[in-house]
Each structure stands twice: as C-alpha cells, then as structure tokens.
Write a structure and sequence with these properties.
single chain; about 140 residues; mainly alpha; two-stranded antiparallel sheet; 3 helices; elongated
C-alpha cells in the first residue's frame, strides 16, 4: 500500500507540474483526495493487523465506546483504532510477549536445566569409574 501511495504521488506531481489554471487546481484536489483514501486504507489495515495480533494473544483492546481510541474511517460504517491507541495496544502486545517468554525462560532455567546438570555429573562419574576399571 505504501508503494502504491508513492507511485500515485509521483504520477500526480508530474501531472500537476504539466497543468495550469483550473486544470491544475482540479488535479491538486484529486491528488489530495486520492492521498487521503490511500492513507485511510493504510491506517485501516494497520489497525486490523494490530487487533488480530492482540486477539491472538488475548490482549484486551480499548472498549468500543472509548471515543479517544476509536475513529471513523472514510469508508462508511468502518471504525479503526486511532494511531495513539494502536501504539498503546502495540506496547501491551510487546509486554504480553515478553511475559510469555519469561515463563518459558523460567521453565528452562528452573525445571529443565537441573536434571540435565545431574545427568552430566552422573555421566562424568561413570566415565571416571569406567576409566579406573580399565587400568
């Protein structure tokens, strides 16, 4: 979508540069409208992706009646998270991921590593015993 927006900006810049008078003004208005539509699509998609990830991780999103966190899209009947709410939700997602990894790290450190250490020590003792017997 960002690539599409860059191409569109380039196209309109060229057309506006070649036009004059009323035609130029119409092209500027059209370019602004296209830019706003493309920006709206990007914001909608970003909001959708963040909400899907939050749902997957069971991170709560802002309540739908929170007017600060939600805004209307240019598309009728579509609402999305504001940029600020997206940022906050992204922070909460990062915290949740860190919490999940810390539980796994704890499990490895406190549960899995001690038995591995014991097995290593036992294999060392067995090696010493075996070496002494073979002499």
């Amino acid at each position: 979508m960002h690539q599409k927006r860059k191409k569109s900006n380039k196209k309109y810049s060229k057309l506006i540069g070649q036009a004059s008078g009323d035609e130029r003004e119409l092209l500027i208005l059209e370019a602004m409208d296209v830019r706003d539509d493309e920006r709206d699509q990007i914001l909608n998609r970003n909001s959708e992706c963040i909400r899907e990830e939050a749902e997957y991780l069971s991170v709560p999103e802002p309540p739908s009646d929170d007017k600060v966190s939600w805004e209307r899209s240019r598309i009728p009947r579509v609402t999305r998270l504001t940029v600020q709410a997206q940022s906050k939700l992204r922070q909460n997602i990062r915290k949740e991921k860190i919490d999940k990894w810390s539980v796994l790290a704890f499990g490895l450190k406190e549960v899995a590593l001690p038995p591995i250490g014991v097995l290593g020590a036992l294999s060392g003792v067995i090696s010493v015993i075996h070496a002494l017997r073979s002499k």
